[in-house]
Write a structure and sequence with these properties.
heterodimer, A: mainly beta, B: mainly beta, about 15% helix, elongated
Chain lengths: ~15, ~260
Amino acid sequence: IFRQEGMRSFYRGY
Amino acid sequence: MFEARLVQGALLKKILEAIKDLLTEASWDCAQGGIQLQAMDNSHVSLVSLTLRSDGFDKYRCDRNLTMGMNLASMTKIMKCCGNDEIITMKAQDEPDTVTFMFESKNGDKISEYEMKLMNLDQDHLGIPETDYACVIKMPSGEFARICRDLSQFGESMVIACSKNGIKFSTSGDIGTGNVKLAQTSSVDKEEEAVIIEMQEPVTLTFACKYLNNFAKATPLSPVVSLSLSPDVPLVVEYKIEDIGYVRYYLAPKIED
């Protein structure tokens, strides 16, 4: 079972 | 006024093929330095970053920065009207509601023009810091596409393990397991056929095959693909686009609950 992290959890928005 | 002319119009067609299945719509940010596009897929698990430098175009003019929100399915319909050997010019006014695509035959005796309505897209941009990756793999893009295609028959996710000995792609599913090992090329006649590993430390990460297969749609853009991996950060899959720029895909690794 996997959980996939969204991009926002890695890179901050600007 | 914005105008960008690309004699190799087929490049723009290939770029669109490389992003249209991942993104439904995207903003094309045009500035003096060139065109940039950054967008996440609907699930926000992957990110596409496209850069086309102005000096890679045969003619480029951008008086004011502008953002053109485009529906990529609509753009695909228009690009299908462009022959592979035709010259593409994109044109827009300052603060545009529409963009015009002009296609010229090589000898100039046929000119087609298509005007497309633009959209207001409220897209957030992500800042991606410069990262030193634990492993950077350069390999033939066709080989990468084939591995993604072959292994995705077995399971939904693929493990990429990179060490100094080589790279191992593996998957498992209901019918069984599969893996492909690639050794680093010892001597190369053609650089684009080589497998080259730059490794600081070994890395093993798991990714969804569905997205990797989508990224592989950029294969016609470049004979070489580079994969950059580090523990716990997104994989970067990069295809250089001749002398004009690159398309990069970022994909979050799967994390066990």
